[in-house]
Design goal:
Blueprint lengths: L5 E10 L2 E11 L3 E6 L6 H9 L6 E6 L2 E2 L5 H7 L1 E4 L11 H6 L6 H10 L3 H18 L15 H13 L5 E5 L7 H16 L3 E5 L3 H7 L2 E6 L2 E6 L1 H5 L2 H6 L9
Parallel strand pairs: 3-8, 3-9, 6-7, 7-8
Antiparallel strand pairs: 1-2, 1-4, 4-5, 9-10
GO molecular function, one term: ATP hydrolysis activity
Keywords: ATP-binding, Nucleotide-binding, Transport
Organism: Thermofilum pendens
């Protein structure tokens, strides 16, 4: 049986005696969009931080394509094909839009040095990276802003650049923390369309999101966190009808998604 792209097994995490995650398990398949929802403070971002290697779990394991990555550092997970975007874009404000987009590829600097020493054409690789960056700028509608500093972008444009940075390295798994937060409906729809494109291209997506009107339509599977525990999971239609979700996430019985 083929291992899932991502598997989280019984992960727990506490801060100062407060348990933020309590034996959380989930899985993400390639070519799927998995939605992680729950009220504020339910542990969603903490779980993304553990999956991406920013935090270590107190107990439990994280597997990527069957490989135990629990103790790997973030850059090691990146090299395996895991990327991450943040709720608040973490851009280099002194760099241009294009330079920001190329930053994730600089992880391979030592490989470029080795290529030069061996006589290989690292210039061709640089040209390919620039071409890929331009394609993404066009795809996200940012091509006219290519030379601007990222600090000059609007909130929605910053979100699009954050998305582009997460996918330029051709990852297999993308973790997104509220990609639709703080943007208008038109930009949100554009981001969702791009996420669907990634899914259809075979990538696995784990998305934390509160704007369920858009996200639920395209999710293949949903996990609901409440007080650090998974209280419901399944296809969107099943989760929508779960009274535990209405009570914990939406404020009480009788609410609807």
């Amino acid at each position: 049986m083929t291992a899932p792209l991502l598997q989280v097994l019984n992960v727990s995490k506490s801060f100062g005696g407060m348990k933020v995650l309590d034996r959380v398990s989930l899985r993400v398949e390639g070519g799927s969009l998995t939605l992680l929802i729950g009220p504020n403070g339910s542990g969603k971002t903490t779980l993304l931080n553990i999956i991406s290697g920013v935090l270590k779990p107190d107990s439990g394991r994280v597997f990527f394509k069957g490989l135990d990555i629990t103790h790997l550092r973030p850059h090691e997970r990146f090299r395996l094909g895991i990327t991450r975007s943040f709720q608040t874009p973490r851009l280099f404000t002194s760099l241009s839009v294009t330079e920001n987009l190329l930053v994730p590829l600089r992880d391979y600097a030592e490989e470029r040095v080795l290529s030069m020493l061996l006589g290989n054409s690292w210039v061709a690789r640089e040209a390919l990276a620039a071409r890929d960056a331009w394609k993404l700028l066009r795809a996200t509608g940012l091509e006219s802003h290519w030379s601007k500093r990222s600090s000059e972008l609007s909130g929605g444009q910053s979100k699009l650049l954050e998305y582009a940075r997460a996918v330029i390295s051709n990852p297999e798994l993308v973790l997104l923390d509220e990609p639709l937060a703080g943007v208008n409906y038109a930009v949100a729809r554009e981001i969702v369309r791009r996420l669907v494109d990634l899914k259809e291209a075979g990538l696995g997506l784990l998305v934390v999101e509160h704007r369920l009107d858009l996200a639920m339509k395209h999710a293949d599977y949903v996990y609901v966190l409440h007080q650090g525990r998974v209280i419901s999971e399944g296809p969107p239609s099943k989760v929508v009808d779960d009274p535990r979700v209405a009570e914990a996430y939406l404020g009480g019985p009788g609410c609807s998604l």
